Amino acid sequence: MSVKDRLNEDMKLAMKEKEAGKTRLSVIRMVRASIKNLEIDQKKDLTEDEVLDVVAKEVKMRRDSMDEFRKGNRPDLVEALEQEIAILLKYLPEQLSEEAVRELVVEAVRDSKATGPKEMGKVMALLMPKVKGRADGKMVNSIVKELLNQ
Question: Are 103 and 73 in contact (CB under 8 A)?
Answer without folding.
Answer: no
